[in-house]
């Protein structure tokens, strides 16, 4: 994959002093008509590759979490109701994801401080507590969605909700309390990659190429119902906890400015991966459930799996789709709970790192455990989840202007002038962020008004 262009002029100037390579005579030698790379040039290439690979992880993990249970259901509804017509916007959203999350990468790597900590320093403790408090509520709502999905997957295989959710919560708590950041990242990515099962599910659905091509060119932007579902897809792209997580992750991973290029590639790869997964879900449902027309609504994992079974069979509908949903819900629950704990620690100014022992960061780990236990308790309590999910979507949508507004303000204030956005990149980022915020407010208003 091509590396995104580096528009920050000072980056090379910052990175060069960190590389201790002596001046060279020609790095490439001509010997009998053959081009031979010198040992020093080879070492430089290996050194650069090592820094690129060392930065990989946070972007892929947060993007796998972005394709969470709620996003999967939204993508399933998109395919069932509108066929392949939602695919062009999903492709366009790759750029939005990358531009927003790349700002968090720069802020974390250059300042060495988390999102909540920067808000506290730049705007005061009150604003930090407001931002973190609303984030924690939104994260709790997200955890309810993830554990409800895990419960649904368990029911597909005959596992009672108490057992399925209990095992997931226990695993997440043990993982967080006994691991370093590196181990948490490795486990999260390994389980999150189960989402790739959605790709063979899409292939097993045998989409018709002619229908795909026709519907890609007939996007109904004038239809109010389509616009409403489009707003839901846009709102599912940028989650408030994603900003807090990735900025904290590059710090816990101990990345420096020399890793910035690799971190950008990591973020770009994750942005493409999450949208490919979303498109695969759209294709799987459009090529099967969508064939019957009628704009069918899907609201649970059981409904999706049951509707897919006549087309994909037991293996495709339950095993493939179920494992994909399980991976999505697990990695999202992990990322959301860690992001919440980081945010609390940053706002309070207390130790907040997965690399700390429990005794060194009590408040951080307490917030982590409480978030997981609270989300699981709501799912297992029997509270009607339909109305609760609507309220969660409204809250997340209303939170977007606050989170993205702070992110844009911090990018303009907390970074050195030479590492801030400028020119066309700045205007495109501001415009795309404004569009995301506008869609979020639009979706919230429609839900509040019952439209």
SSE order and pairing:
Blueprint: H1 11-15, E1 28-31, E2 34-37, H2 39-54, H3 58-66, H4 69-82, H5 87-111, H6 115-123, H7 125-156, H8 161-178, H9 181-192, H10 198-204, H11 209-216, H12 224-235, H13 240-252, H14 260-286, H15 301-348, H16 362-380, H17 385-413, H18 423-449
Antiparallel strand pairs: 1-2
Helix pairs in contact: 2-14, 3-9, 3-13, 3-14, 3-15, 4-12, 4-14, 4-15, 5-13, 5-14, 5-17, 6-7, 6-15, 6-17, 7-8, 7-15, 7-16, 7-17, 8-16, 9-15, 10-14, 10-15, 12-18, 13-15, 15-16, 17-18
Care to describe what's here?
- The structure is a single chain.
- This protein has 451 residues and is mostly helical.
- It has a single domain, classed as Amino acid/polyamine transporter I (Up-down Bundle), CATH 1.20.1740.
- The protein has 18 helices and two strands.
- A two-stranded antiparallel sheet has the order 1-2.
- The radius of gyration is 23 Å and the shape is globular.
- 49% of the residues are buried.
What are the main properties of this structure?
Amino acid/polyamine transporter I; mainly alpha; disordered N terminus; 451 residues; 2 strands; two-stranded antiparallel ribbon; 2% strand; 18 helices
Could you report the average pLDDT, rounded to the nearest whole number? 83
Shape: globular
Order of strands side by side in the largest beta sheet? 1-2
Q: How many β-strands, per DSSP? A: 2
Helical content class? over 70%
Note the gap between the termini.
Answer: 42 Å
Reading the helices and strands in chain order gives HEEHHHHHHHHHHHHHHHHH
Q: Given the helix and strand composition, which structural class is it?
A: mainly alpha
Strand content: under 5%
The CATH architecture assignment turns out to be Up-down Bundle
The major β-sheet equals: 2 strands, antiparallel
Number of helices, where a helix is a run of at least 4 consecutive DSSP H or I residues: 18
Given this structure, which CATH class is correct?
Mainly Alpha
Task: Please compute the radius of gyration using only Cα atoms.
Answer: 23 Å
CATH superfamily: Amino acid/polyamine transporter I
The count of domains is 1
């Amino acid at each position: 994959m091509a590396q995104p262009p580096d528009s920050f002029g000072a980056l090379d100037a910052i990175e060069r002093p960190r590389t201790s390579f002596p001046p060279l005579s020609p790095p490439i030698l001509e010997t009998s008509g053959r081009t031979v790379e010198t040992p020093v040039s080879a070492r430089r290439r290996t050194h650069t590759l090592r820094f690129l690979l060392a930065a990989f992880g946070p972007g892929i993990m947060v993007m796998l979490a972005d394709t969470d249970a709620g996003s999967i259901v939204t993508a399933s509804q998109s395919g069932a109701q509108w066929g392949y017509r939602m695919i062009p916007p999903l492709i366009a959203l790759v750029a939005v994801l990358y531009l927003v999350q790349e700002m968090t990468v720069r802020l974390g790597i250059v300042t060495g401080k988390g999102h909540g900590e920067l808000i506290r320093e730049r705007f005061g403790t009150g604003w930090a507590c407001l931002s973190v408090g609303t984030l924690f509520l939104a994260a709790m709502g997200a955890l309810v969605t993830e554990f409800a999905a895990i419960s649904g997957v368990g029911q597909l295989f005959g596992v009672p909700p108490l057992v399925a959710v209990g095992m997931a919560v226990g695993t997440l708590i043990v993982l967080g309390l006994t691991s370093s950041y590196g181990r948490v990242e490795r486990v999260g990515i390994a389980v999150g990659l189960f989402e790739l099962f959605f790709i063979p599910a899409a292939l097993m659905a045998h989409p018709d190429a002619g229908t795909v091509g026709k519907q890609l060119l007939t996007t109904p932007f004038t239809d109010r119902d389509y616009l409403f579902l489009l707003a839901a897809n846009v709102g599912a792209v940028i989650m408030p906890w994603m900003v807090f997580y990735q900025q904290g992750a590059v710090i816990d991973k101990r990345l420096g400015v020399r890793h910035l290029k690799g971190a950008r590639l990591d973020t770009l790869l994750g942005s493409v991966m999450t949208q490919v997964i979303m498109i695969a879900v759209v294709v799987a449902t459009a090529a099967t459930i969508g064939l019957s027309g009628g704009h069918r609504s899907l609201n649970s994992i059981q409904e999706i799996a049951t509707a897919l079974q006549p087309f994909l069979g037991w293996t495709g509908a339950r095993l493939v789709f179920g494992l994909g949903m399980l991976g999505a819900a697990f990695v999202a629950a992990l990322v959301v709970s860690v992001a919440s704990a980081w945010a609390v620690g940053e706002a309070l100014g207390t130790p907040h790192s997965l690399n700390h022992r429990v005794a060194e960061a009590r408040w951080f780990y307490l917030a982590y455990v409480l978030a997981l236990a609270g989300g699981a308790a709501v799912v297992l309590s029997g509270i009607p989840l339909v109305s609760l999910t609507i309220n969660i979507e409204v809250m997340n949508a209303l939170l977007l202007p606050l989170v993205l507004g702070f992110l844009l303000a911090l990018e303009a204030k907390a970074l050195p002038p030479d590492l801030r956005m400028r020119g066309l990149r700045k205007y495109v980022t501001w415009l795309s962020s404004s569009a995301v915020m506008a869609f979020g407010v639009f979706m919230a208003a429609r839900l509040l008004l019952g439209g």
